[in-house]
């Protein structure tokens, strides 16, 4: 059954989940445990409070908070009131958050108090103190209300408790009427791109696109009622929100949000909550496998892992299956501009297919690779029901993102095999040219990752007087390894074409990543030019 035809809108999905799954546990967040019935009640209460605060259909409402039950309730409450959700990256600083709030002209913001030692409220107030507005943040005149998801708040903001109390006079029938008025083709959310290659842009996605896409995701992944899902992927990212919250609502799975990835916390959660589903980047699963105390935790309930990245080592897939006995390990590929889902492996695929590709196009989707060389890598382009309506109020950028015949230019470089499996080789902007040869960092990283002493690696192009550019690798050694840069370079010369071999290797304690798990190549390039903030050397 197609999700868009079955539910029509996310508010209808929330109500349906409450009715179908009733007493089944919906969310476990620390000591908080709520059923699907209780989740539905909390969402309707939050929707009533949004309506009481003047939120109208089509208004943008932002959430800037980590993975918690309050994120789920505030976001779904806003959407149930007819608003368009704008999730904000939890790694943003105040000025970055203010930029997205300004670009989206958000009317309301839900914000956490303190997270990772940072006061989001203080950071935002500093960044927006000067401006013409008279609202809670002077430089953001469209922002009429800020609700702090905590027990206290500055004078011009409201606490979560006070906000919810404000909606108590709104009749339940009025909330249902507002929710029922949400149309299938209305925007459900605006997902701003990560901004690692420039200013973030907001991809507009509809209720129909979300429901249809993640109904397919549930089918392909095999998510089922009774699954217990540790959601480490951040909710502000399409994968965390839609393959997490939305998918669980569809199938009646229990959500266990984890605000920050910490391997010890994850192991404890998996054991204590009998977690069966654990999507996340390859580094998450690698760290679980390599943890010295892994055998002290009961991980036997794990049955489904979905991962995705340019590099997924074959050895990782084999270890997940062999050592943890996980029956289903899948890889997938998506981007915000295509609702976060484009291709996906299928259950039963060989380990080599799962590790070396991102699977085949999902149903009702077209994927092509545009290249001057029919057998070589080229730009991945996508066309289908899930491709964004456009960038929010950015017609020029939207036009640039599409070909004349309606294909989305992804900016990713890839290859399609004879079976239609897509292998992402790189970002177009990450490619560098060594003496006339195109070098793709992801391909080199995949090869370097085969070295038994390399736990993690990233490659960038750096200037070279003779060849124009050459590769430089930033590598993380496995515990106990004494691998040197000369050792790794010599090994690479035996394993890959000379132009691909990094001319320099720098060992670091960890690679810089954003909250979605992507390596921040901008930080690495800055380090190469002597501006390596955020990168910890060994």
Structural topology:
Blueprint: H1 3-6, H2 10-21, E1 25-29, E2 32-35, H3 36-52, E3 60-64, H4 69-80, E4 84-87, H5 94-104, E5 108-111, E6 114-115, E7 118-119, H6 120-127, E8 145-148, E9 158-159, H7 160-165, H8 172-180, E10 187-192, E11 202-206, H9 207-221, E12 228-231, H10 238-251, E13 254-257, H11 263-272, H12 282-290, E14 304-307, H13 314-322, E15 328-333, E16 343-344, H14 351-356, E17 360-361, E18 365-370, E19 378-384, E20 390-391, H15 395-401, E21 408-416, E22 422-427, E23 432-434, E24 437-439, H16 441-448, E25 454-464, E26 468-477, H17 485-495, E27 504-507, H18 521-528
Parallel strand pairs: 3-4, 3-5, 5-8, 8-9, 12-13, 14-15, 26-27
Antiparallel strand pairs: 1-2, 6-7, 10-11, 11-20, 15-16, 16-17, 18-19, 19-21, 21-22, 23-24, 25-26
Helix pairs in contact: 2-3, 2-4, 2-10, 3-4, 3-8, 5-6, 9-10
Structure, described:
The chain is of the alpha/beta class and 538 residues long. It folds into three domains: 8-205, Rossmann fold; 261-427, 3-Layer(aba) Sandwich (Rossmann fold); 431-528, ANL, C-terminal domain (GMP Synthetase, Chain A, domain 3), CATH 3.30.300. Strands 4-3-5-8-9 form a five-stranded parallel β-sheet, sandwiched between helices. A hairpin with a 5-residue loop joins strand 21 and strand 22 (422-427). Helix 9 crosses helix 10 (238-251). The longest helix is centred in the N-terminal third of the chain and has 17 residues, at 36-52. The protein is globular, with a radius of gyration of 23 Å. The mean pLDDT is 90.
């Amino acid at each position: 059954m197609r999700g868009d035809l079955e539910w029509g809108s996310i508010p209808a999905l929330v109500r349906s989940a409450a009715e179908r799954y009733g007493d089944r546990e919906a969310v476990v967040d620390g000591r908080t445990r709520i059923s699907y019935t209780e989740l539905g009640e909390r969402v309707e209460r939050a929707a009533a409070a949004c309506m009481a605060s003047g939120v109208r259909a089509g208004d943008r409402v932002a959430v800037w908070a980590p993975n918690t039950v309050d994120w789920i309730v505030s976001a779904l409450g806003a959407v149930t009131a007819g608003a368009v959700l704008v999730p904000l990256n939890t790694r943003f600083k105040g000025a970055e958050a203010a930029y997205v709030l300004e670009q989206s002209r958000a009317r309301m913001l839900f914000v956490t108090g303190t997270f990772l030692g940072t006061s989001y409220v203080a950071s935002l107030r500093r960044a927006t103190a000067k401006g013409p507005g008279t609202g809670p943040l002077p430089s953001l005149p469209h922002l009429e209300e800020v609700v702090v998801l905590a027990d206290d708040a500055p004078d011009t903001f409201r606490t979560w408790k006070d906000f919810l109390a404000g909606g108590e006079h709104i009749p339940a029938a009025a909330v249902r009427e507002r929710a029922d008025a949400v149309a299938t083709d209305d925007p459900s959310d605006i997902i701003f791109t990560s901004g690692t290659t420039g200013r973030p842009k907001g991809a507009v996605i509809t209720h129909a696109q979300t429901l249809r896409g993640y109904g397919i995701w549930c089918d392909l992944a095999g998510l089922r009622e009774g699954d217990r899902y540790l959601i480490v992927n951040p909710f502000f990212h399409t994968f965390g929100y839609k393959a997490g919250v939305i998918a669980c609502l569809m199938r009646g799975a229990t959500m266990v949000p984890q605000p920050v990835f910490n391997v010890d916390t994850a192991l404890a959660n998996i054991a204590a909550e009998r977690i069966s589903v654990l999507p996340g980047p390859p580094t998450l699963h690698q760290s679980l496998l390599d943890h010295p105390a892994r055998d002290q935790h009961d991980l036997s309930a794990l049955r489904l892992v979905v991962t995705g990245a340019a590099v997924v080592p074959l050895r990782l897939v084999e270890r997940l299956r062999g050592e943890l006995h996980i029956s289903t390990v899948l890889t997938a590929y998506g981007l915000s501009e295509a609702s976060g889902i484009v291709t996906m492996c299928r259950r039963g695929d060989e380990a080599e297919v799962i590790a070396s590709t991102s699977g085949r196009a999902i149903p009702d989707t077209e994927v092509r690779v545009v290249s001057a060389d029919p057998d070589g890598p080229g730009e991945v382009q996508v066309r289908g029901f899930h491709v964004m309506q456009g960038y929010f109020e950015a017609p020029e950028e939207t036009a640039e993102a599409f070909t004349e015949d309606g294909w989305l230019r992804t900016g990713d470089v890839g290859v399609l095999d004879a079976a239609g499996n897509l292998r992402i080789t790189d970002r177009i902007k990450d490619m560098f040219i060594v003496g006339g040869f195109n070098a793709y960092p992801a391909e080199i990283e995949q090869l370097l990752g085969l070295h038994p002493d390399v736990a993690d690696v990233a490659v960038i192009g750096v200037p070279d007087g003779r060849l124009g550019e050459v590769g430089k690798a930033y590598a993380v050694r496995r515990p106990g390894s004494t691998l040197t840069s000369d050792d790794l370079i010599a090994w690479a010369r035996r394993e890959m074409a000379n132009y691909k071999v990094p001319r320099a290797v720098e060992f670091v304690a960890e690679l810089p990543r954003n909250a979605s798990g992507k390596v921040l190549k901008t930080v690495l390039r800055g380090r190469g030019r002597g501006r390596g903030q955020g990168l910890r050397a060994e």
